[in-house]
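COURSE: Structural Biology Practicum
ASSIGNMENT: Worksheet 4, Part C
STUDENT ID: 0417
INSTRUCTIONS: Below are two proteins. For each, the amino acid sequence is given first, followed by its structure token string. Answer the questions at the end about the second protein only.

PROTEIN I
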Amino acid sequence: MKGITTIIGMVVAFASIFVGVVVLGGEIPDFVNIPSIILVVVPTVASIIAGFPMAILVKIPGHFKVLLGKESNPTEYIDKIVSLAEKARKEGLLAFEKEQVEDQLMAYALRMMVDGLDKFSVKFALEDCINGIKERHMEAISIYDKAAAYAPAFGMCATVVSLVNMLMSLDFADPEAINNLGSNMAAALITTLYGSMLANIFFLPISTKLKILHKKEIMCKTMVCNGLLSILNGDNPRVIKDYLVEQLSTADSAQFREDEKKSSDD
């Protein structure tokens, strides 16, 4: 499962901070302050709600399904496209009418091919779809990028609020107030820690992972576009395969060739 590394990384990051607190002689309860958590989390969430339309916000649960779901595999797309190319060469494009594929973009392209649209119309339609996918992905990613910027800022704001309240109530004639000065200042600084942790352990890793998944999915969608256009052009399946494999990274291309060689040897 592709999202397991994200979860492991977050858990280890949080755990390392708690372990560091203990190792340095601190106590975990001293770092738990509910009002400080509220001062950081609530304004951060509220700012996200204020900055994005509800149509985008309601998709947030789906982002976590993407993080934990199946990752796009370029080699599977290559195998499927080559299989379609071989079928088209033997049976013609009308053979795609009953073809069942999971990828929505590929299914859309096959319907256009069966309907007899020319390659330029198919190309423009697929490129529009890919651009739409990019826009939707960027909207999702921007939520976590903004939240990663808001959280530390509100952490600092909460620190200032706590310090102002502490100084306004400070009475040097009161021995108890002097004795509590250190603990009150520590409580004020905890909000900065909360904002930094929220940004760097939660929001930024999610944003980074979504960006990586975005690049891989767009690469697969581009393969669908290029591969099916090559089929429309009447290219040889072997030529199409070589063309698509060359679009992979050097390491992935080498791995694909090695797996293909092992499969042929077996």
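PROTEIN II
(use this one for the questions)
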Amino acid sequence: MATILELRNVTRSFDSKVVLDDVSITIEQGSFTALLGASGCGKSTSLRIMAGLDRPTSGEVLLGGSDVSEQTAYERNVAMVFQSYALYPHLTVAQNIALPLTMRHLTPVRRLPLVGAVMPGTGKARQTIMDKVHEAAEMLGLDQLLNSKPGQLSGGQKQRVALGRALVRDPSLFLLDEPLSNLDARLRVRMRSEISALHRKTGKAFVYVTHDQTEAMAMADQIVVMIGGKVAQSGPPRELYEHPANRAVAAFVGHNAINFLEPGDGIDMGESVVGLRPEDLAPSESGALLARLESAEYLGSEIVLSLRGAKGAEIRAIAPGDFAVPATGSEIRLGYAPEKLHLFDADTGFRRERAA
């Protein structure tokens, strides 16, 4: 698969503060890459450098194999979708979607409603633009809303308009900066599916910034985990979940926060810190780990148990929804499959592989 975009050893500093520290990221044609990390980790700065809205202090930005580090956003054929939607309230949905094409193909004079209408070629250009607008609107289910103003739209509809405006440009890739953060939980799930479907339809590369690892795991075929301005690990979601490179990645990836058990906390693996995900730890009469129940959270199909180990370690485990939860303070035996254990060096935090 061909590489469409690459950040190569990019550093970005603001005065004496280093925001990106020797960051290298490769985006393949047609891929869906999530830049995942907590606030302030450098993911949005990375996206802005990809877009040409910011420039690296050092390093290279390659687009289609060419160095575009000094090119502006206008000179790069990329589309950016912002968290805030950035729609013009006085324009209709059709006009908002058409805006990039209007600016590109019509001179200021041709955009004037009366003078432009009588200039040769204006009508044909406007018709071409509207054909592309209707094509994008149909793909995004906006056909019936083209004459509406943004103030008449729901949050999900506004987000689709922003996507449509990016889509009509026919960009080489799409860059999306936390586009769902303003939506409620149910609508976020729906829009995740719609963005994934749009990615499949276009066949273009998508780069998606998020702090929500559930979004990243659900949508991306490559996740780049960023911590403290560096790339901590990158790879397919399953690889990051099953083989985290260090404790920080293990803690960030996964729906439930991973348990870390120090030597002596109940699982003897020498001097290694043991990582064990709650979904891999469940009540079992023959379980090797003994812990005291502090609380239980019933979620229907499952029950999240919060417990305390013999040495005081906080432990979370997942029980099936029909589990008979004992009284708070009761001791519960927990079982796990040995192959589910993750071992980390107690000093460096890096992953250790178990001996065969």
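ANSWER KEY EXCERPT:
Q1: Residues 306 and 316 are 5 Å apart (CA to CA).
Q2: The chain has two domains: 3-242, 257-352.
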